[in-house]
C-alpha cells in the first residue's frame, strides 16, 4: 500500500484546498497519472500517482484544507480482484463502456486517449472539433481532437496506431486532465457503433438515405454551425462547406442565410403596434470561449488590483518613417522580413526601461521584484481574442530578429499554434491599436506587470516647429502604469524617453 500525500507547494506556501478528484476509489492508475488538484493562494497543483495500481481509499474530500505532507489517499497494487470489482460497481456507465467489444478475439488491445495536462494553473478545457470518427484507422501521433483551454488550443494526438472504437466526450463538453476522450483498439476489428456521442439515436441504415448520410459525414458539423442549422431548420446538404475536408463552418451558415434573405419573399402583413416583438431569430446566445472568459477575468482583476493611471504624449514619426522608407527594400532583401514600426518601439522601450526600472518591475505581496531582463509582450489580435506572446531578451536582439519574432507570433497566433510558455513571464507589454484605426486609448495592465505602452494610428497634424506651423505624421502614445510602484515622474520620464528615441533613432545606436 502506497500513501498519496500533499507535496511541497512552493516557498511560503504551507496549506492548500483539495480541488477536484480526477479519480475515485477502485480506479486503476498509471505512474504519474494526475489524481487530484490542490489549490493554493498562488497556483493550482496537480498531484500525480506515485505508482501504478488501484485507488483503495480517498481520505481528503474536495474542499478540505490540508497541510504539507497530509494524507490524501492510498494506492494498492493492481493484482487483486477486489479492486477491479469495486471499480466496476462504482462506475456503472464506464463499466458498461469497458465491457463493449474491444476486439480481443483478434488480439486488439484497447488504448485510452487521455486529456493532457495543459500547463500550470490550467485545470479544464472544452472539447473542440473531432477530426476522426468511430471506425477510422489512425497512425501514431495523428491529431484526433483539439482542446480549447483559457489560454490556447491544444491538439491531442493518437498514442498508438489502431482503430477508433469509442469517442466518449462530445464536442463542447468540459473535461479535466486525465479524462478519457476516446478508445483506440490496436489491430483494428469490429467497431461498437453505439459508443459515439454523435450517434445517440443510431437507427438501422436506410439504403435510400445513403447519399444524404454521406453528405452529412462530409459536413462534419462542429457545435456552432450545428446549432445554427438546427435553429433555422436548414439542410446541411444544401450548404457548401469551406472548412477542412469540406466541413461546414459558422461563416458558411451565415453566408447561406444572407443569400436566402436576399431572395425575394412575399411581403408580410404589418404587425399590430401592440404585438410583442419576436426576436428569437434575430438574437443568438453563444457560450463565451475559455480564452474570452480568461481575458474578461484578467482585465477585471487588473482594474481591481492595480492603482492604474495613464499618461499621454505624442511623437513625430518623421524620422522613423524616413529610415524605414530609405532602407526597407535593402532590409527585406538581406533579412527576409519587412521593416516595420514595432521593432523601433521595442528598442525604444527597452532603452527607456533600463533608465526607469520601476516600469519593468512587479509587486509580489509586500516585495518589489526588479528585473534585469527585458521580455516584451506583443499584443496580437486573433478571431478568438487578444493574446500576448512574449519576445524574450529583447535587449539582445537586432531589429531584424525582433521583426522576425513578431511576424512569427502573428502568424502562429492566428493559426492557434502558440504554446502556453510563449505567453507567460513578460515584464512589459506593447499593444498597437493603431492597426485598427484607434486615435487614442487607455490600455489595461497585463498583470502582474507594472506598465503597458499603447500605440495608435499615425495621423498628419499641424504642429509648431520653431516659429513655423508644419504638417508632420504624429502618433499619440499612452502609458498605463501601476501607481503603487511607478511614480508620476517615472512614468512621464519613461514616455519622454520613448518619444526622444523615436524622433531621433540615432540615440539608440549611441545609447544616449
UniProtKB/TrEMBL annotation:
Cofactor: (R)-lipoate
Its EC number(s): 2.3.1.61
Biological process per Gene Ontology, one example term: tricarboxylic acid cycle
Residues of the Peripheral subunit-binding (PSBD) domain: 220-257
CDD domains xref list: lipoyl_domain
Pfam families named among the record's database cross-references: 2-oxoacid_dh, Biotin_lipoyl, E3_binding
Pathway noted in the entry: Amino-acid degradation; L-lysine degradation via saccharopine pathway; glutaryl-CoA from L-lysine: step 6/6
Lineage top rank: taxon: Bacteria
Cited Gene3D superfamilies: 2.40.50.100, Chloramphenicol acetyltransferase-like domain (3.30.559.10), E3-binding domain (4.10.320.10)
Catalytic reaction(s) noted: N(6)-[(R)-dihydrolipoyl]-L-lysyl-[protein] + succinyl-CoA = N(6)-[(R)-S(8)-succinyldihydrolipoyl]-L-lysyl-[protein] + CoA
UniProt keyword annotation of Acyltransferase present: yes
Enzyme class of the recorded protein, top EC level: transferase
Low complexity biased stretches: 83-100, 199-217
Transmembrane segments: none
Biased amino acid composition, Basic and acidic residues: 278-287
Domain Lipoyl-binding: 1-76, 110-185
GO cellular component: cytosol; oxoglutarate dehydrogenase complex
PANTHER family xrefs: DIHYDROLIPOYLLYSINE-RESIDUE SUCCINYLTRANSFERASE COMPONENT OF 2-OXOGLUTARATE DEHYDROGENASE COMPLEX, MITOCHONDRIAL, DIHYDROLIPOYLLYSINE-RESIDUE SUCCINYLTRANSFERASE COMPONENT OF 2-OXOGLUTARATE DEHYDROGENASE COMPLEX, MITOCHONDRIAL-RELATED
Family recorded in the similarity comment: Belongs to the 2-oxoacid dehydrogenase family.
Assembly mode: Forms a 24-polypeptide structural core with octahedral symmetry. Part of the 2-oxoglutarate dehydrogenase (OGDH) complex composed of E1 (2-oxoglutarate dehydrogenase), E2 (dihydrolipoamide succinyltransferase) and E3 (dihydrolipoamide dehydrogenase); the complex contains multiple copies of the three enzymatic components (E1, E2 and E3).
Protein name as it appears in the record: Dihydrolipoyllysine-residue succinyltransferase component of 2-oxoglutarate dehydrogenase complex
Organism: Parvularcula bermudensis (strain ATCC BAA-594 / HTCC2503 / KCTC 12087)
Amino acid at each position: 500500500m502506497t500513501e498519496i500525500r500533499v507535496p511541497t507547494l512552493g516557498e511560503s506556501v504551507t496549506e492548500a484546498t483539495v480541488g477536484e478528484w480526477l479519480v475515485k476509489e477502485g480506479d486503476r492508475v498509471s505512474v504519474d497519472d494526475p489524481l487530484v488538484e490542490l489549490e493554493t493562494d498562488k497556483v493550482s497543483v496537480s498531484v500525480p500517482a506515485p505508482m501504478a495500481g488501484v485507488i483503495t481509499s480517498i481520505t481528503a474530500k474536495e474542499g478540505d484544507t490540508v497541510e504539507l505532507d497530509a494524507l490524501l489517499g492510498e494506492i494498492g497494487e493492481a493484482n487483486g480482484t477486489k479492486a477491479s470489482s469495486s471499480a466496476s460497481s462504482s462506475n456503472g456507465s464506464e463499466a458498461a463502456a469497458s465491457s463493449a467489444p474491444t476486439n480481443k478475439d483478434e488480439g486488439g488491445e484497447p488504448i485510452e486517449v487521455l486529456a493532457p495536462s495543459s500547463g500550470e494553473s490550467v485545470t479544464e478545457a472544452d472539447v473542440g472539433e473531432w477530426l476522426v470518427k468511430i471506425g477510422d484507422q489512425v497512425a501514431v501521433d495523428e491529431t484526433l481532437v483539439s482542446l480549447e483551454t483559457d489560454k490556447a488550443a491544444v491538439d491531442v494526438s493518437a498514442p498508438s496506431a489502431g482503430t477508433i472504437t469509442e469517442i466518449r466526450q462530445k464536442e463542447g463538453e468540459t473535461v479535466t486532465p486525465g479524462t478519457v476522450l476516446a478508445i483506440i483498439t490496436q489491430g483494428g476489428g469490429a467497431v461498437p457503433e453505439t459508443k459515439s456521442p454523435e450517434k445517440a439515436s443510431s437507427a438501422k441504415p436506410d439504403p435510400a438515405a445513403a447519399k444524404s448520410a454521406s453528405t452529412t459525414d462530409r459536413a462534419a458539423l462542429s457545435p456552432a454551425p450545428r446549432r445554427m442549422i438546427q435553429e433555422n431548420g436548414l439542410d446541411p446538404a444544401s450548404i457548401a462547406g469551406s472548412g477542412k475536408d469540406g466541413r461546414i463552418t459558422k461563416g458558411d451558415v451565415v453566408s447561406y442565410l444572407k443569400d436566402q434573405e436576399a431572395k425575394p419573399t412575399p411581403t408580410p402583413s404589418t404587425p399590430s403596434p401592440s404585438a410583442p416583438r419576436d426576436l428569437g431569430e434575430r438574437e443568438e446566445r453563444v457560450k463565451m470561449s475559455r480564452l474570452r472568459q480568461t481575458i474578461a477575468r484578467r482585465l477585471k482583476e487588473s482594474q481591481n488590483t492595480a492603482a492604474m493611471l495613464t499618461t499621454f504624449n505624442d511623437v513625430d514619426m518623421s524620422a522613423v518613417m524616413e529610415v524605414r522608407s530609405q532602407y526597407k527594400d535593402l532590409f527585406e532583401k538581406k533579412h527576409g522580413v519587412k521593416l516595420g514600426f514595432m521593432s523601433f518601439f521595442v528598442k525604444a522601450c527597452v532603452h527607456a526601461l533600463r533608465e526607469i526600472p520601476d516600469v519593468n518591475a512587479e509587486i509580489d505581496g509586500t516585495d518589489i521584484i526588479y528585473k534585469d531582463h527585458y521580455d516584451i509582450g506583443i499584443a496580437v489580435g486573433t478571431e478568438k481574442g487578444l493574446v500576448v506572446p512574449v519576445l524574450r531578451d529583447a535587449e539582445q536582439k537586432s531589429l531584424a530578429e525582433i521583426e522576425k519574432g513578431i511576424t512569427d507570433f502573428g502568424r502562429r497566433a492566428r493559426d492557434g499554434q502558440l504554446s502556453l510558455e510563449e505567453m507567460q513571464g513578460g515584464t512589459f507589454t506593447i499593444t498597437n491599436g493603431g492597426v485598427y484605426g484607434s486615435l487614442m486609448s487607455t490600455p489595461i495592465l497585463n498583470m502582474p506587470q507594472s506598465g503597458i505602452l499603447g500605440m495608435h494610428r499615425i495621423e498628419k497634424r499641424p504642429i509648431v516647429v520653431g516659429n513655423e506651423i508644419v504638417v508632420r505624421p504624429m502618433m499619440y502614445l499612452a502609458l498605463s502604469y501601476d501607481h503603487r510602484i511607478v511614480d508620476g515622474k517615472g512614468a512621464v520620464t519613461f514616455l519622454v524617453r520613448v518619444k526622444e528615441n523615436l524622433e531621433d533613432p540615432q540615440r539608440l545606436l549611441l545609447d544616449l
